[in-house]
């Protein structure tokens, strides 16, 4: 796949503090890429560098092989959907969507057909004459998306566009955005702090923290093979405990030896072990590889979340069967469910 | 709603006593002669003063346009600053208004005089002296200087409501600086522009101090003319009332023209 956007050693500083520390990243054409991370990790800044709203203090931005580092936003072939939609309050829905085409001096018939087509795509047919200020959040969001897509950009940048919507609407819009991206066959670069959103929509997830990239990979890779404790704890819930890699395919943690599928670590190397809460099997105490006492049981709808104390460590277990608090239970962890990472601080 | 109307009562009384009654008196005088008989003569002879009217309107319009051109960029700059900085800059804008109006205008007299400070400094470099005081330019300068804050404040207020992301959105969609200005910034500042124009134009068109002090005898404005009818040698309050009435109609026409732009929300605008 060809690269459409390429960032090389981007450094951005605000008030003497670096928001991005030499970030490098390639984005492939026609992918749905998500920048994921906690607030202040630099994900929005990275997006704004691509959009041209933030000038990096050093480093280069390439678009389709051309250096666009010093190109102003209005000359870039990307369009942005802003966090607060940023619709033009003095223009109606039709004029908002037509704004970019008008600037290109396209003829009125062409503008009309493209605007109406795009409004239909985002489900706002018949809203042309409506005032944008009277629309609901979801509708405003659709106008903002249509306003960007109508220009047929090669890349659409989306800055936490669903942040202000309620959960149900957000889930609908997630699927719709994914559908739109596939239908238009262009690159979407999406910024969010919501890991579930990232996993649902993306082809590629870029996990960021403190202005650095932590991991780049498909949602499945990021979830199943986190590269460090930060990624493991940020994406979904996990039990992360220290262990020792005794030899290939054998790891010791929580006072027991486990068979695993990882190899290639040094003999007795100190590692961190990641086990997802849903991957721990609850069995009668005598059959368990580990035994612990149930401290707390919380009903979560699809499953129960249990906190189990075992040798001073509190395990989180997701199970469809509830155990009683105070009960002694056994825990089994299959070799496939154990993920080994090199130990990092923090 | 509870009887909120009662809250407006004090102002209603004020309005009747100090606005409606005087207006009625002015109208009465405008249509009567000295003996108190009905006449249209006062209004008919106003034609003689058309040059004064035209001059007043032209100079006021000039001052308003200059204020607008000066204020627009500065207001935009102000509205993009951080809140703490905005307060400091706003105070600087208002600072001259804390000083007495007459004093400020006197200061300009001593600056612009033929052997005033400016001419003396220029003379030091072998330039001039220039005739600056008692010109129409000096009158416009006085108007701009005194009324500039009344343009900056409403513009600034309107502009603080413009979110940065809206401007970025315009750039994102392909608008350069000029298109962003004409397609987004100016339309969104329209309520402030309309208020600013009214608040500068109305006092400019009716001023008499500025023209008397900086314009000398040759730049008489409507305000001076009206003043002459009441306090001056010509003492003719019937004509003075008629002049005031005509001026009021002109101002109302101008205001209804600008108000066409600001039918949107105006709350918070001075």
Describe this structure in words.
Chain B: The chain crosses the membrane at residues 12-32, 52-76, 88-109, 121-148, 193-215, 235-257. Chain B: It is found in: Cell membrane. The complex is a heterodimer of chains A (346) and B (270). Chain A has helices at residues 43-51, 93-103, 108-121, 137-149, 167-184, 195-201, 219-224, 229-234, and strands spanning 3-14, 17-28, 32-36, 58-63, 66-67, 78-81, 155-159, 187-192, 204-209, 212-217, 239-247, 250-253, 256-259, 269-275, 280-283, 290-299, 304-310, 313-319, 328-333, 339-342. Chain A is α+β, with helices and mostly antiparallel strands and 346 residues long. In chain A, the strands form four sheets. A six-stranded mixed β-sheet of chain A has the order 6-7-8-3-9-10, with helices on both faces. Chain A has a five-stranded antiparallel β-sheet with strand order 13-12-11-14-20. In chain A, strands 15-19-16-17-18 form a five-stranded antiparallel β-sheet, with no helix packed on it. In chain A, a hairpin with a 2-residue loop joins strand 11 and strand 12. Chain A is elongated and about 80 Å long. The model of chain A has no long low-confidence stretch (mean pLDDT 92). Chain B is mainly α and 270 residues long. Chain B has a single domain, classed as MetI-like fold (Orthogonal Bundle). Chain B has helices at residues 9-30, 41-44, 50-79, 83-94, 101-112, 117-124, 136-160, 164-172, 177-206, 209-215, 222-231, 237-259. In chain B, helix 5 runs parallel beside helix 10 (209-215) and helix 11 (222-231) packs antiparallel against helix 12. The longest helix of chain B is centred in the first third of the chain and has 30 residues, at 50-79. Chain B is globular. Chain A binds chain B through residues 51-53, 72-74, 78-80, 82-84, 86-90, 99-100, 103-104, 147-148, 151, and chain B through 163, 165-166, 168-176, 179, 183-184, 187-188, 190.
